[in-house]
Amino acid sequence: MFYRLTKLQGYPIDAVDGTIGCVEDVYFDAEGWGVRYFVVRSGDWLRERDVLISPRALRRGARSGEAIATSLTREQVEKSPPVATGHPISRHYEMAHAAHYRDDFHWNDPPSRAGGSFGMLLGTAQLQPGNEVSQLEAIAEREIEAAERSHLRSGAEVIAYDIEATDGTIGTVEDFLIDDEDWRVSYLLVDKRNWVGSGHVLIPVEAVDRIDWGVGLVRLTMTRDEAARSAGYP
């Protein structure tokens, strides 16, 4: 099933013992297009604080038309690392976030096997036998140095960005289509009124060459004619 980001905004997310809050945005990996976190605005119980909830925390098959269910408790969410939303999320913050939840989701394998799922989060290779602690310390130093080079960006930020094919502008980003099977952005919904009149077209994210964040522009690898032949949005 595909969710539009704008339809997810305002959608409730529940802990096992009560409501956490409502989806405000998503942070996605601008290289792999995977949704890494939901940005959730908590209710009065947490003073309207923003918290990040990973799709890994969702209870599969537990979603309904009323809320998205997680396996978290409100206490876990309350004690999660604070985050300044509206800015790219650093790798250093991701490390702190994963460390907070690792006992619940087993993201962090024992040190001798740190090349597993948590090791992949850190962008590390399989550790070599012996001196694992020294290797982990070196990895941590590299990750801290790379903290500001994160590829995680706000989905809401990209909405209204211009879309440019190899031979000219075709329209603006109106929405993301997110597949709830793997929580990955699959398509950009493009409003092409600025190009060829009314209507919309779906552009697969594989056709995105790069995003120029400073100028608000999504550059494609396809021509305008190729974009026009992409699937239309019903």
From TrEMBL:
Transmembrane segments: none annotated. SUPFAM superfamilies: PRC-barrel domain. Residues 3-56, 163-213 form the PRC-barrel domain. This is PRC-barrel domain containing protein. It comes from the Bacteria. Pfam families: PRC.
